[in-house]
């Protein structure tokens, strides 16, 4: 893992830490790992429940080479696939990616990812990838509807350092070919190929099947009346049953 590693006992947010961080000249990727976050968050106003010292909470600062802003979803796909492949290496199956980048085991959330890209002209200057993965937490007390951890799935605890290295190594080695990454990502999409499920958009609730995404991250759903509709992030909500 060719990256500078910073370990913190406690921080408000590893993403926020890296927003303020000034890399040394010539420094490549930077990883910040915390045992506890006081203000860890998911997308929007969501928070992330994590028992101190039990889970993997980290952010990764990378400087992509020549990725246009129009293709920034490539980073989301690559880190999602890296997490899935790392979990599979631990023997966890039945994994999927709930668009855009939640990692699910069956119908329960194992990992959340929050990505903040900073642009320079038409290119991505750098990307902060925040990740909260439930590793050794055995019980959840918040009102989050469907959390699950590696220890609950596997029946034994896992070394968080090994988990970290497997995820980061796979992300760093992810293929640069956008078409291949998009194809692999679509193959892992949550609910894809499983029939009709309830969703909600600005016009209300409806039934649809998941078709896939394009390279920009737009999600295509096929509604029960046969119409195909594309959605950008936050324009449609998965209704969990």
Global shape: globular
Structural class: alpha+beta
Largest sheet: 7 strands, mixed
Alpha-carbon distance between the two ends: 39 Å
- Radius of gyration (Å): 18 Å
Number of helices: 5
State the gist of this model.
The protein is of the alpha+beta class.
Q: Could you please describe the fold and organization of this structure?
A:
With 241 residues, this protein is of the alpha+beta class. The protein contains five helices and twelve strands. It is 22% helix and 34% strand. The strands form two sheets. Strands 1-2-3-7-6-5-4 form a seven-stranded mixed sheet, with helices on both faces. A five-stranded antiparallel sheet has the order 11-10-9-8-12. A hairpin with a 3-residue loop joins strand 4 and strand 5. The N and C termini lie far apart (39 Å). 34% of the residues are buried.
Supply database-style keywords.
globular, 5 helices, five-stranded antiparallel beta sheet, seven-stranded mixed beta sheet, alpha+beta, 34% strand, 241 residues
List the helices and strands and how they pair.
Blueprint: E1 3-11, H1 14-20, E2 29-37, E3 56-62, H2 73-89, E4 95-98, E5 102-105, E6 108-120, E7 123-133, H3 150-154, H4 160-172, H5 178-187, E8 197-201, E9 204-213, E10 219-223, E11 228-231, E12 237-238
Parallel strand pairs: 1-2
Antiparallel strand pairs: 2-3, 3-7, 4-5, 5-6, 6-7, 8-9, 8-12, 9-10, 10-11
């Amino acid at each position: 893992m060719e990256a500078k590693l910073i370990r913190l006992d406690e921080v408000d947010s590893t993403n926020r830490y890296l927003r303020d961080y000034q890399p040394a000249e010539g420094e490549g990727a930077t990883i910040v790992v915390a045992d506890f976050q006081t203000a860890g968050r998911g997308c929007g106003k969501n928070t992330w429940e994590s028992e101190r010292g039990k889970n993997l909470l980290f952010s990764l600062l990378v400087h992509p080479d020549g990725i246009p802003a129009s293709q920034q979803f490539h980073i989301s796909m690559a880190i999602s696939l890296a997490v899935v492949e790392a979990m599979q290496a631990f023997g966890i199956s039945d994994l999927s990616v709930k668009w855009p980048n939640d990692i699910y085991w069956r119908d329960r959330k194992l990992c959340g990812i929050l990505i903040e890209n900073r642009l320079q002209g038409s290119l991505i200057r750098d990307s902060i990838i925040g990740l909260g993965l439930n590793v050794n937490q055995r019980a959840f007390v918040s009102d989050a509807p469907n959390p699950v951890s590696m220890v609950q799935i596997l029946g034994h605890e896992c070394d968080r350092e090994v988990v970290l290295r497997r995820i980061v190594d796979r992300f760093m080695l992810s293929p640069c070919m956008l078409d291949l990454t998009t194809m692999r990502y679509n193959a892992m999409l949550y609910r894809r190929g499983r029939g009709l499920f309830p969703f909600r958009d600005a016009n209300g609730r409806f039934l649809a099947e998941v078709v896939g995404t394009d390279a920009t991250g737009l999600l295509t759903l096929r509604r029960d009346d046969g119409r195909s509709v594309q959605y950008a992030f936050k324009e449609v909500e998965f209704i969990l049953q």
